[in-house]
Amino acid sequence: MHMKKLWYLAALLLMVSCAPKGPVQLIFETDMGNDVDDVVALAMIHTYVQQGDANLLMIGVNKDRPTAPDYVRLMNEFYGRGEIPIGMVHDGAKEREDDFCWKTLRMTNEDGSPVYRLAPKTYEDAVTLYRKVLSKAKNRSVVIASVGFSTNLARLLESGPDGISSLSGPDLIKKKVARLVVMAGSFPESKRKEYNVDRDVPSAKKVFSDWPTDIWISPFELGDVVRFPATSVENDFAWAGGHHPLVDGYVSYLPMPYDRQMWDPTAVLCAVEGTSAFTVNGPYSIKIDDEGHMFHEDDPKGGRYILSVDDAQAKAVLDRIVSLATKDSRKK
Ligand SMILES: [Ca+2]
User: Fold this and answer.
1) In a domain, 4, yes or no
2) Which of 84, 96, 126, 168 is deepest in the core (most CB within 10 A)?
3) What whole-number distance in Å separates Cα of residue 257 and Cα of residue 250?
4) Is 243 within the bounds of a domain?
């Protein structure tokens, strides 16, 4: 081939690889209420949506308390996107009732009036909503960021053909989902029973063994070294001109000031922006024992990858998370 032709081909390849890919078709799966990093992750998502980097197709809630989806809807309404569909787990892990969602939704002003007014709503079953949303999505387009328990995803895997789709859960996922990014687990081998695995071990086992796409894992150790500054909570949300549900949630979760670990936002960052901010290890296959300890083995066909960061990457990831989460991304 002539040199000229080669250059032309190289330039063409460069153009294709730099071309805008369009928004990520995103699903957020959360145990909102158990830790405050889910809220930071959701604030980031609203910025991605505002910037045109993501379409948020639905949110699945896997904490089985009514204030969990209510607080998610409060955040969505605050950002002007109350229409985002929310699916709710049934007979899932309940965990603590009087969490920061519960507290924030009950906050009052000095005169006793409520800070937030949220109309009552019943939520659709999460698995039903997943099947509806996936059946309408473009093939291999959907990216799921799962930052809580695996209950809803395991039940989606177990679902059969129905009036929504003639496909089984695994076939529907294989056809529509590009990849799953999960905050879960603890490496190296693994004395820690990480919370997201530990609260529903059978579902985590099912997802990590049977999920038919690649899974990218942001483990405990990654988010543990990425800590959101309390000063940012105190200073960077003045644009709200009063109460912001993220700030009220953060302040009512633990006594201020504290710099919280950003486990869940690392998974959302990877789901929307890809792996470039991280080191990717793998492929592996993943095993989980009955107590919730997680193990990885080299496996060329395993399709499971574990993210890690060095100090410089951790700092860059934190800067990115803070910059996204603190933006005024209310729908204009
Ligand atoms: Ca979480």
Assistant:
1) no
2) 126
3) 10
4) yes
